[in-house]
Amino acid sequence: MLQVLFLDMARGQQKIQSQQKNAKKQAGQKKKQGHDQKAAAKAALIYTCTVCRTQMPDPKTFKQHFESKHPKTPLPPELADVQA
Ligand SMILES: [Zn+2]
């Protein structure tokens, strides 16, 4: 009788441990995904307009934006060579 009880406890303990392990694993995956999305978003929007702070994915878009929205503002030096 006692032995059976002990076995049940051991089994229950194992179950809890594996549940904790799974939860940890899932949390880790979630964290990793969040990080990847953040990194991807950061990589996709690397050009920030110096005038209005609009973010753009590439220098071409940035230059077109700059020329149409801020024609009176001198072009930033990093856009001078960009072919729009
Ligand atoms: Zn702008």
From TrEMBL:
Pfam families: SERF-like_N, zf-met. Residues 47-69 form the C2H2-type domain. Transcription repressor involved in the exit of embryonic stem cells (ESCs) from self-renewal. Acts by repressing expression of KLF4. This is Zinc finger protein 706. GO terms for molecular function: zinc ion binding. GO terms for biological process: regulation of translation. Its main location: cytoplasm. SUPFAM superfamilies: Expressed protein At2g23090/F21P24.15 (SSF118359). It is found in: Cytoplasm; Nucleus. It comes from the Eukaryota. The gene is LOC111146685. Residues 12-21 have a biased composition (Low complexity). GO terms for cellular component: cytoplasm; nucleus. Gene3D superfamilies: At2g23090-like. The keyword Zinc applies. Residues 12-37, 62-84 are annotated as: Disordered. Residues 9-45 form the Small EDRK-rich factor-like N-terminal domain. Keywords: Cytoplasm, Metal-binding, Nucleus, Repressor, Translation regulation, Zinc, Zinc-finger. Residues 22-33 have a biased composition (Basic residues).
